Amino acid sequence: MLRLAGLTKAYAGTKALKDISLSVPHGQMIAVIGRSGAGKSTLLRLLNRLIEPSSGSIRFDDSEVTALRGADLRRWRSQAAMIFQNYNLAPRLDVLTNVMVGASMEVPQWRRLCRLYTREERLRAARILDDLGLLDKALERAERLSGGQQQRVAIARALMQSPRLVLADEPVASLDPHNSQVVMETLNWINRQHGITVICNLHDLDLARKYADRVIGLRDGIKVFDGAVAALTPAVLNDIYGSAADMDGSYAAERSTGIAIPTLAMPG
Ligand code: ADP
Q1: Which residue, 194, 121, 193, 196, is CA-closest to 166?
Q2: CB of 59 closer than 8 Å to CB of 66
Q3: Measured distance CA(60)–CA(80) in Å, rounded
Q4: Which atom, in ligand 1's list, is nearest to the CA of 170?
Q5: 214-219 and 80-84: which strand pairing?
Q6: Angle, to 10 degrees, between the axis of helix 147-160 and the axis of helix 119-131?
Q7: Cβ–ligand 1 contact at 250 (below 6 Å)
Q8: Tens digit of pLDDT for each residue in 85-116?
C-alpha cells in the first residue's frame, strides 16, 4: 500500500502541489489527469524522490519514503521505476544493453561502467524483451527503433528493475494514436500480469478512460477528483479542466468528453 498524507511541494513562490492525501492498494492502474501545470509531473517525481517534498509523508508498506537515505534511497528509486515522455534510452547502445541498465542496483559500478553483464542478467533482459514482443530488436541500436518501440524498451528496462511501482510521466505524449495504444496495452499488461501498481500521467482522457481502474484529477496542485472512470461526469471534468472559456488549446476536450465546447475565436 502506498499512502500519501499532506504532500506539498513549493517552488520559489509557487505551490505546485498542495496537501495531497491518498491511498493506493497494490496492483491498481491509476491515471493522473489535469491541465498542463496542474502538478502531475511534480507528483510522480516526488514519489520517486527525484525531488523533495516541502512537507507531508509518502509511506510505502512499512517504510517512510521521504526519510530514505543512501543505499535505501537508491533502492527505492529503482523500485519506483520512472518512464518518461522522451524514453531516456542511450540511443547508440543496443536494446539489450539499454534493458540491462535497469539491473544497475544489483550490478557493481565497475561492471556497469565496463558494461559487463552476467549470462543470467542477459537472459533475464532477453526474456523481458521476448515478453514484450521485442526480442528480435535486442541487438539493434535503440535509436533505430520507432518511438513506440523505444517506449516499450523503456518499459522493459523498468521491468528489469523488479519495480514495486511504475510511474509513467506522459508516456504516450510523443506517439501517434496507434503507438499510444500499444504502449498503454503494454503498461496494462505489466499491471495485470505482474500485479505492479502503475501510476500514469495522461493528457488524453480517452486513454485514461480505457486503461485506468482509477483516476486522480489535479487542478492547480489540488486533488479535485479521485474515483472510478465511470464517475468522470461532465461536472467533474469541468472541475478538473476548468470551464470551456479558459480551456487551453492543446486539450481536445470536446472530442474526449463529448461535452460541446463553444468554438473560441482565435486571434489572427
Ligand atoms: P504538469 O505535469 O501537470 O504539467 P508540473 O508538475 O510540471 O505540472 O508543474 C506544476 C507547477 O509547478 C507549474 O506551475 C510549474 O510551472 C511549476 N514547476 C514545475 N517544476 C518547477 C521547477 N523546477 N521550478 C519552478 N517551478 C516549477
Answers
A1: 196
A2: no
A3: 10
A4: 2
A5: unpaired
A6: 130
A7: no
A8: 999 999 999 999 999 988 877 767 777 766 77
For residues 175 and 56, give the distance between their C-alpha atoms in angstroms, rounded to a whole number: 35
List, in order, residues 6 or more apart from 207 with CB less than 8 Å away: 31, 172, 180, 181, 184
Chain-centre distance of CA 128, in angstroms?
19
Confidence (pLDDT) at 33: 97
Question: Among 14, 46, 216, which residue has the most ligand 1 atoms within 8 Å of its CB, making it the best to mutate?
Answer: 14
- What one-letter code names the amino acid at 240? I
Of the chain, the end-to-end C-alpha distance in Å amounts to: 52
Q: Is the CB of residue 217 below 6 angstroms from any atom belonging to ligand 1? A: no
| Contact assessment for residue 154 and residue 134, using Cβ atoms and an 8 Å cutoff | no
Q: What is the pLDDT of residue 163?
A: 95
User: Using CA positions, which residue lies closest to atom 11 of ligand 1?
Assistant: 16
Q: What is the pLDDT of residue 32?
A: 98
Taking the CB of residue 22, how many other CB atoms lie within 10 A of it? 15
Sequence-separated (6 or more) residues with CB below 8 Å from residue 1: 23, 24, 25, 26, 59, 60, 61
Residues β-bridged to residue 4: 22, 58
d(CA 77, CA 45) in angstroms, rounded, equals: 10
* Residue 234 CB-density burial (10 A; 0-12 exposed, 13-18 middle, 19+ buried): exposed
Name the average pLDDT for the chain: 89
Taking only the tens place, the pLDDT of each residue in 49-71 is 999 999 999 999 999 999 999 99
Q: All 3 cell numbers of residue 232?
A: 468522470
* DSSP-H helix ranges across 34-105: 40-48, 70-79, 95-100
What residue has cell string 507528483? 43
